[in-house]
Amino acid sequence: MTVLGIESSCDETGVAIFRGQRLLSNVIATQESIHRLYGGIVPELASRAHCSRIDRLWQLALKRSGCDPGSLEAIGVTTTPGLKGSLLVGACFAAGLGYALRIPVYHLNHLQAHLAANYLHSRLSFPALGLVISGGHTNFFLVREKVNFQLIGGTVDDACGETFDKVARMLNLNFPGGPEIEKLARQGNPDRFRFPRPLLSPGSLNFSFSGLKTAVLYHIRQHGLKDIPDICASFQKAVADVLVEKVRRAVERYPVKTFLLGGGVVRNRYLSRRLCHFLKSRGLTPLVPPPRLCLDNAGMVAILTAALIEKGYPPAPKSIRVVPTR
Ligand code: KG4
Ligand code: ZN
């Protein structure tokens, strides 16, 4: 089975080709330089950039894979959640290509695809727990098998990556803020400032990061932009403590052997080390996608599409109807 994946839910345009158990190509065009000017993603600019790039990326993915378009058997495209205009670009491109190549198109959930980025791992087993930590979401899933996801917890306000980005903006750092904070935190003292660890009610698997973000804001208002590496390290440690505590609650409630991590924030070495260390101490196997498959990409979309097809799921209803003319 040769599958084409398309991703355009936020600010990365991606096209990938997956065959057997291998990604033959996985190309990504990031829009970081466009949005950096504004300190965050501007939806209208994002969809325009997807429009102008997607065709070139499809050509490039095809060339790199060495495949003939006629050998493609299905297309998977992210259709939820995400920025509406951005999603539409990918969905329409997939529909057009599916029609031209006469192959089915599958509509996919972006968060599930983040977890599916782990499906090439040899130690994969089910049932598993999954945690997506990205710019827009911080969600727990019980994953009973490759395509069976049950949402068991999520963010009630800011997502984890969003909190990194907003704190970075308060510190006058570049967008996206996560990698900038991680870099500075390496030179800082994580125990210098005691920021809050918002945990919500006992046993809750939901997340709330807005209080932590506000605590950093008040700290800056009171002390100014001093000791930035210490602020970054202390903030990052508070986030890690919250994530580890929530993961502890989840694994105690759902006894599984495997834990899937996914999403852009998982690229943070300190956070993923803390999470993996905790999971291993409980005898679980943590799976973390390779860095290229953590951030938004179409490889994860193609991998999940192949799993859906393997399980016999139907494609999306035909989104383009051609009315015959008389
Ligand atoms: O998964 P992703 O590419 O997009 C969404 O689905 O949202 O995640 C992007 C998020 C951004 O908020 C970015 O700041 C964060 O991932 N991120 C990081 C790191 N690298 C990316 N956060 C913390 N540390 C990092 N090294
Ligand atoms: Zn994402």
Distance between termini?
A: 38 Å
Which regions contain 5 or more consecutive residues with pLDDT less than 50?
A: none
Number of H/I helices: 10
CATH topology term of the largest domain: Nucleotidyltransferase, domain 5
Kindly describe this structure.
With 326 residues, the chain is an alpha/beta fold. The protein has 2 domains: 2-115 and 294-310, Nucleotidyltransferase, domain 5, CATH 3.30.420; 125-289, ATPase, nucleotide binding domain (Nucleotidyltransferase, domain 5, 2-Layer Sandwich). The chain is built from 10 helices and 10 strands. It has helices at residues 32-36, 43-65, 84-101, 110-116, 160-170, 177-185, 210-223, 228-253, 269-281, 299-310; strands at 2-7, 12-19, 22-30, 74-80, 105-109, 128-133, 138-145, 148-153, 258-262, 285-287. The strands form 2 sheets. Strands 3-2-1-4-5 form a 5-stranded mixed beta sheet, sandwiched between helices. Strands 8-7-6-9-10 form a 5-stranded mixed beta sheet, sandwiched between helices. Helix 2 packs parallel to helix 3, helix 4 (110-116) crosses helix 10 and helix 6 (177-185) packs across helix 8 (228-253). The longest helix is centred in the last third of the chain and has 26 residues, at 228-253. The model has no long low-confidence stretch (mean pLDDT 96). Bound molecules: 5'-O-[(R)-(carboxyoxy)(hydroxy)phosphoryl]adenosine and zinc ion. 5'-O-[(R)-(carboxyoxy)(hydroxy)phosphoryl]adenosine binds next to helix 5 and helix 6.
